[in-house]
Amino acid sequence: MISRIYVMPKDKGTRADSYLIDSKLSLKELTKLANALTNPILEKYYINEPLKVGNFSYAIEIGYKPGVTDNVSHTVKEIATDLLNLKKHTDFQVYTSKILFTSGNKERTEKFALELYNPLIERANIAQIKNGKINFPNKAPKVILEKRKLVVKVPLNVSDEELIKIGTLGIKEGNIRRGPLALDLASMHAIKEYFAKLKRTPTDIELEALAQTWSEHCKHTIFANQIDDIQEGLYKTYIKGATNLIRKQKRERGQQDFCVSVFSDNSGGIIFDKDFLITHKVETHNSPSFLDPFGGAITGIVGVNRDTIGFGLGAKPVANTYGFCFGEPDEKRHLYLDKEQKQKMLLPKRIMDGVIKGINVGGNCSGIPTISGFVKFDERYRGRPLVFAGTVGLIPKKIGARLSHEKKAKPRDCVVIIGGRTGADGIHGATFSSVATDFNSPATAVQIGDPITQKKLSDAIIKEARDMNLYNSITDIGGGGMSSSVAEMAKESGGVKVDLEKVPLKYPGLRPWEIWISESQERMTLAVPKNKIKKLFKLLESREVEATVVGEFTNSGKCVLYYKGKKIMDMDMEFLHNGLPKHHLRTSPPPALADLPLSLARRGARGEVYTKDLENLLGSKNLNGFSFISEQYDHEVQGSSVLKPLSGPGRINTDAQVFRPVLNSNKGVVLSSALYPSYGDISTYDMAACALDTTVRNAVASGGTLSHLAILDNFCWCSSYDKTRLYQLVEAVKACYDYAVGYGTPFISGKDSMFNDFKGYDEKGNPVAISIPPTLLISAIGVVSDFYKVVSPEFKNAGDIIYLLGETHDELGASEYYKMLGEIENNPAPEQARYGASVPKVNLEKNLKTYLALEKAIQKELLNSSLSVTSGGFGIALAKACVGGMLGCKINVESMSAGSNSAMVKLFSESQGRVLVSVPPKNTREFEKIFKDISNARLGTVSKDNKFIITEDNKKIVDSSVKKLYDIYHKFSNSMQ
Amino acid sequence: MKNKKPKIIIMSGYGLNCEEETKFAFDWAGGNADIIHINDLIAKPKMLKEYQILVFPGGFAYGDDTGSGKAYANKFKNHLLKELCEFLSRDTLVIGICNGFQIITNLEIVPGALTYNKNGKFIDRWLDLETRNSTSPWLKGIKKISIPITHGEGRYITNPKEYKTLKKNEQIAFLYAKGDIYKFQNLEHNPNGSQYDIAGVLAYNGRVLGMMPHPEKAIFAHQSPLWYKNKKVSKEGQGLQIFKNGVNYFKDR
């Protein structure tokens, strides 16, 4: 029987919660449950009777579509089970929804409803309110899967044309295709040959498994294959190559090689102190966030948490990081997946709201501080937002007698799946993210994370089971589902066999191939010795974490799957993991760039515009504060914060953050990140160099040290089969190598997402293709030996002396300033020209000296503030330091070492290697001694008044006020509250 | 009892997540704190007799689904109501912080209720609290402190009649106030919109304290946003006093 409980606020409610309950509960039991769902001070409930509301005309009900993760329903089930003493497998289902009351007419209500729900995952009902009462039909959104053939064979003895179709559109079932395998013809041929040798026809699950294992998402083929004359491929040559060289150099120089576990595990791990390691991993979750922003983002953050829990024997997540690249929030042009315009894509603002909320719920509910992040805007992200999510972990070096970063599944260990159940969610997620978003993007590729199910799992593993030594190996179930996770772990033992019918399901009717590749969240794979099963399961049961033995690790060299006793997959591990044919990728350089348009170049001398320009520039969304995001992310939990996301009375966003993962240690962890997507329009080599330089500089400027700093790369590229895009990729990767080696900062982990392209239709039904600009995020993690010496970026005291470290050159190309001018003057020139051609270059030798000297000055506690100069240049950096401290400044820029004496260059060039510091007068002598041979300029003083004055040649070139700049800086954030 | 460390039980499980730093605070203050999963307490309810202080720490029990604190409180009530009453009948202390406060309002051992912040959003921010209470053991020696809030459902709800009672019985523990942090960053002093500025309440003669702000995240001076302005201060933060008070209540006699 289906019953409905409504719970609504007692006074002036405009909303209600609804719980549809499919059960055999009596009214007495339902009443007991309704009481438990209601706070009598705030709310009242109705059971199986119309909801009584005030003076409204319509009600909108929004609930999930069948099969979409409904976290609240889980909780209600747990409440009911506990409250009513229900047996474990009692027939009891809950479907929750939210109800909103409106006063508009039907048309307006329908339009309003469209703003509230995402038809991909949610359903909306609208009901008229009659006599102050509403009653929605009690229809439960149950998953009913039609009976289908469990396993089908897929003959490959077919034309190439059909093989291509199987590869790109999926296995044919009746008249429809299942969705992309993302296997190219060469791969299909390799598979065909393999099964021809075995003299049998492959099953669907075998093909699906190969597609997952060989996907770009899992194999990173573009980084692995030979490209031009780089035989070993980009990853081995330049990324891992840099790390190997740095480690060797460090050992030769007698410095500490702090790398412990790099590239081999779910996260990268480095030494924290004598007792602990810290780990870091940054993921992207772009395509799911485009379709379902909230679900995509929460799955991203909760998923990367599992990369921490899955590091070594299980690290504790101690910090989250995020990064967002969105289209312009005021974008009004809709995009459609199909020509008929039935599938309307979400606008950037909607995507932004959903993504921000997803990281909010994922991080806050998990009790992990979200301390480090950024947001960038560029209209080219409107067809695919970028959502970066990272997690830092902490793990003791040793667990008992074992080194914590080593793990190995042994033959005869049980394959144990723990955590959430398996459903149809996320099927073809990994292959989907390996192709561009188009009409065939599967809706099931979307999932919603459940942070509480995962929190229970996480606590049980890293706070208990790990230290009780109850398993031999652990890994995350993420992209590719069990297919990737179990088969990957099977490499440790040399084989595996699994009985797929044993996998606990969310609802009946899933076929074996779906079970094997489903990307349902909150699951992990463990390898557990038989004699420890009982103890582990007892612990997990008492922590309400579901665990099931689904198979056994072997050393047979094979991955064998059964369903109800029938063998449905039998594949050599060697072919599964290494059978993917190698390609030789080729590149070709993009056309040369045009010069700067005259209208911009001429702008130089008009001094009086700089006040306005600086204020406008500070007001641009890419340079404005984003406290509305920082403040809704818990950054105090775990009690570890040292340098927070917001700093000073003026609450400026910090470029690096410091926290203290071990509460009785004075050591801290510094995090920073940087990216300059617009620089890539001119040169991806310089784009990468600047991102790396800035990340390193941000960390050092706050108190980090080059001697204990590691970095991570996240490449988000577009059209990666295009030779010029590949050329740009190679350039960027080479810069990564050059500067990582130069600074001695090894890469410890990375991730790529190579097809961030949208293909669809605009509002007129014309085909459109939008690619993101090639984007490289570099993140850094380092250890600060004494966090009490950490310096925050804002000015502290009037009278302190302001210095700019480093050199300023005429490098305004692709700068925020030129972008702004381009917009103001509505410059019709092509993109690259609009942005000028003189992109910042990184002078490694000079910057290295500056950074080492800066480290020294910070260790000696000579500075009162230190702010890395990044996007927007010196003018913006100065404004931020003043706003942060709510103090004025009096500056003379004559002594700034600019190659050109143009004030425009001094104020807005984004030359790298620069840091803005303030020094108390009593420390200036010692400070200047340290920087004797390093470019720096003594510019003026911090002032107590509200004035923000920059002069050159006795002329005021900028005359503003701190109060005004404060209002401008927080304008975007305030508009988002 | 003299000089013996009081035993403190800190509840965990189902998404509570501040138990570790809360334990750190109590241990540092001189107590002896254990983190106990609610299911372990349900399995051995007599365990509660060994403790002097019961703590419901912050977190997101059950993801705040169906309303913050409800589900955890229900579970506690279903299995441990008798033991809780027994615990409260002894000369013991209870503290509920943030989600723990939400839980103990749902357990109905402190008055009032907590609901969504007035802007509907989660807020992480430092602010100032003041207390005018002079009788609660938890608040000894405290007048004004600055500590952070991190919550989505922290708006305290009561009614005029109840408020009068709260005032009369000295049951208001903390008010959101204008102090050092307010002067520093000049933001609303009561950002969640709590009625009568109430940030924390007391019951059982001041032995039970429920509060939304997090004293356990303000036990070190460096945790305060004011620290960078003047680092030359004692290493202790203003929140620590609450934990010291809890521990000293048992040590002092």
Automatic annotation (TrEMBL), chain A:
UniProt keyword annotation of Magnesium present: yes
Binding locations of Mg(2+) 1: E283
Its EC number(s): 6.3.5.3
Ranges where the Phosphoribosylformylglycinamidine synthase linker domain occurs: 180-220
Binding of Mg(2+) 2, residues: D307, D476
Assigned GO CC terms: cytoplasm
Pathway this chain belongs to: Purine metabolism; IMP biosynthesis via de novo pathway; 5-amino-1-(5-phospho-D-ribosyl)imidazole from N(2)-formyl-N(1)-(5-phospho-D-ribosyl)glycinamide: step 1/2
UniProt keyword terms in alphabetical order: ATP-binding, Cytoplasm, Ligase, Magnesium, Metal-binding, Nucleotide-binding, Purine biosynthesis
Function: Part of the phosphoribosylformylglycinamidine synthase complex involved in the purines biosynthetic pathway. Catalyzes the ATP-dependent conversion of formylglycinamide ribonucleotide (FGAR) and glutamine to yield formylglycinamidine ribonucleotide (FGAM) and glutamate. The FGAM synthase complex is composed of three subunits. PurQ produces an ammonia molecule by converting glutamine to glutamate. PurL transfers the ammonia molecule to FGAR to form FGAM in an ATP-dependent manner.
The protein, known as: Phosphoribosylformylglycinamidine synthase subunit PurL
Organism: Candidatus Nomurabacteria bacterium GW2011_GWD2_39_12
Gene that produces this protein: purL
